[in-house]
């Protein structure tokens, strides 16, 4: 019987932590102005309070997750029940007042309008939290018990399956992976990051002693390439092109004479 | 960062990636090439117009019998007044005029304030490069403009075509149906499939903030750090990133003409508009390029219509 009581604690802790991370990332990334105003409980507060409201919510979740993990104090147990019960009320209210807004439970991933699945999930989480109130061990001990005493019992897996069924975010994530914007439409890394990737490439090591200065005189991005233009000692242009995706991207270089049209293309595709 | 030589970027990029260097200008097609000619009217008669180009050269052009003119309303070429700035669509290497637009201007921006009771004065923010602009909406045009600008209040977008008269800009015709969202919340582009299309469709518009005879385009999707334009990189059309200096191949779907046009400026204002062009069919949403008037006319565009359905590719 005690196994049943503690079986849902690790799941609750994982859910709360994921919620915290996703909310902090959403606030941190900023996005387009106005994006926050379409998310979750934040739409119910005035504009300048929206980011702090999301952060306070994230901090609350983190405190509850940490409490469930290391302590058996009833404050955290009942706090979790109260948190999810309140979320259910907030989502119902959100659905009534702003049917266009997403629940924001997992930051901007939850931007689809609140449906019965999101509300069902908070109800389910309230139930799971209520079951865990009388668990005799901490979340940490429950998870450690699975590692020592064999695989988790079937009702833990059932909890995961129930939540997965009630999470519209999973479909959203699958869609994002499938329809990922091609590299040329994505916001590129900063110029300095690409420049340091160039400097750690074999092509750069082979040619950098010919350059007058290690700083490019011009740099621009076109499609999935960033170009850096340098001068060499013969006053020709040396141009490097660095591919923008991948950890060790392809680097190409060419020397182009400054006397107008007759270029001396010298491509060296390097798999650096 | 400045642009030491944006022309050079094209040569360097072509050399390093082994592209064949395309050249700016119209693609030779089946259609008879159009040329845009800009100048100040020195003398005009029903069959002949004499202008002074911005370079200070006098030119005499023949007016075709079917030619029409616009100077705030439709008129005949012979009725144009001396001293007005004209942009003409010409045939036969720029010798025969078939369409004249006099003192035409386009006012695109975000509404900052609206004052006045009968004739309205609208203050607009036209983007970081173009600054603020003040425009007068005469009473007779205000109904026509407001019906296409239902959110006629600060923070929303404004786009109109009009004329310059005595140093003031008069807005006369709406250039689009105003997008229903405030200028700062542009909808995100539709989800893209990995493996992009080689051509992107949308609407191409024009703007008069280019130099008089310049051929070029302003493009919304540029990297902010490269251009020093904090408002660029926004578009609802799913555009690829390009640079100032890239060559854009623009095709006018309505007139079936295409041309290679260099990107010369950041199109931060164009990127805010998520509208469609219904010039010959209904285009997908989003402005994909804002052309200079000369490029726009040479692609077969009609200035007072404000847009044409376009496809773009990398030249």
From TrEMBL, chain A:
* Location relative to the cell: Membrane
Which terms in the GO cellular component ontology are assigned?
A: membrane
- The protein's predominant localisation is membrane
Q: Name one GO biological process term.
A: methylamine metabolic process
Residue span(s) of domain Methylamine utilisation protein MauE: 11-134
Domain of life, source organism: Bacteria
Q: Decide whether keyword Ubl conjugation is in the record.
A: no
The record's InterPro entries line, in alphabetical order, gives: Methylamine_util_MauE
Task: Name the membrane topology term.
Answer: Multi-pass membrane protein
Which controlled-vocabulary keywords does the entry list?
Membrane, Transmembrane, Transmembrane helix
Pfam families assigned: MauE
Name of the molecule in the record: Methylamine utilization protein MauE
Organism the protein comes from: Nonomuraea fuscirosea
Automatic annotation (TrEMBL), chain B:
The superkingdom listed in its UniProt entry is Bacteria
- Lineage of producing organism: Bacteria, Bacillati, Actinomycetota, Actinomycetes, Streptosporangiales
Q: Which organism is it from?
A: Nonomuraea fuscirosea
Q: What is this protein called?
A: Uncharacterized protein
């Amino acid at each position: 019987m005690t196994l049943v009581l503690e079986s849902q604690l690790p799941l609750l802790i994982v859910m709360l932590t994921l919620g915290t991370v996703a909310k902090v990332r959403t606030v941190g990334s900023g996005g387009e102005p106005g994006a926050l105003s379409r998310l979750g409980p934040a739409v119910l507060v005035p504009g300048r309070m929206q980011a702090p409201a999301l952060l306070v919510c994230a901090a609350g979740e983190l405190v509850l997750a940490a409490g469930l993990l290391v302590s058996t104090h009833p404050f955290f147990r009942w706090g979790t029940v109260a948190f999810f019960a309140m979320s259910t009320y907030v989502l119902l209210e959100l659905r009534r007042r702003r049917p266009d807004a997403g629940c924001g439970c997992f930051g901007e991933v939850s931007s689809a309008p609140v449906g019965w699945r999101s509300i069902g999930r908070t109800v389910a989480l309230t139930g799971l939290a209520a079951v865990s109130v009388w668990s005799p061990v901490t979340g940490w001990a429950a998870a450690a018990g699975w590692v020592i005493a064999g695989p988790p019992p079937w009702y833990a897996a059932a909890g995961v399956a129930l939540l997965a069924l009630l999470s519209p975010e999973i479909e959203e994530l699958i869609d994002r992976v499938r329809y990922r914007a091609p590299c040329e439409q994505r916001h590129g890394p900063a110029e300095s990051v690409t420049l340091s990737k160039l400097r750690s490439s074999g092509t750069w090591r082979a040619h950098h002693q010919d350059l007058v200065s290690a700083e490019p005189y011009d740099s621009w991005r076109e499609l999935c390439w960033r170009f850096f233009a340098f001068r060499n000692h013969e006053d020709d242009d040396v141009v490097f092109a660095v591919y923008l995706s991948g950890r060790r991207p392809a680097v190409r270089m060419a020397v182009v004479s400054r006397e107008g049209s007759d270029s001396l293309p010298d491509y060296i595709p390097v798999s650096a | 960062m400045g642009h030491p030589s944006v022309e050079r970027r094209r040569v360097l990029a072509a050399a390093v990636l082994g592209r064949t260097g395309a050249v700016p200008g119209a693609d030779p097609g089946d259609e008879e090439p159009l040329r845009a000619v800009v100048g100040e009217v020195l003398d005009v008669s029903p069959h002949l117009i004499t202008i002074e180009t911005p370079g200070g050269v006098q030119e005499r052009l023949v007016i075709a019998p079917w030619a029409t003119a616009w100077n705030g309303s439709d008129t005949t070429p012979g009725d144009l007044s001396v001293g007005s700035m004209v942009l003409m669509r010409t045939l036969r290497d720029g010798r025969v005029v078939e369409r004249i637009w006099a003192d035409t201007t386009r006012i695109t921006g975000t509404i900052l304030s609206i004052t006045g009771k009968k004739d309205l004065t609208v203050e607009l923010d036209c983007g970081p490069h173009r600054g603020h602009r003040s425009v007068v909406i005469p009473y007779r045009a205000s109904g026509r403009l407001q019906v296409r600008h239902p959110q006629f209040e600060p923070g929303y977008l404004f786009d109109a075509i009009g004329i310059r008269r005595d140093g003031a800009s008069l807005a006369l015709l709406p250039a689009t149906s105003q997008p229903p969202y405030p200028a700062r919340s542009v909808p995100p582009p539709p989800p893209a499939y990995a493996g992009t299309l080689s051509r992107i469709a949308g609407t191409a518009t024009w703007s008069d903030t280019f130099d008089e005879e310049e051929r070029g385009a302003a493009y919304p999707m540029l990297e902010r750090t490269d251009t020093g334009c904090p408002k660029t990189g926004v578009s609802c059309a799913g555009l690829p990133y390009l640079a100032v200096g890239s060559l854009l191949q623009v095709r006018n779907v309505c007139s079936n003409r295409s041309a290679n046009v260099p990107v010369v400026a950041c199109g931060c204002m164009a990127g805010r508009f998520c509208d469609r062009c219904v010039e010959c069919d209904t285009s997908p949403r989003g402005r994909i390029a804002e052309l200079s008037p000369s490029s726009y006319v040479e692609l077969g565009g009609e200035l007072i219509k404000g847009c044409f359905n376009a496809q773009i590719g990398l030249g």
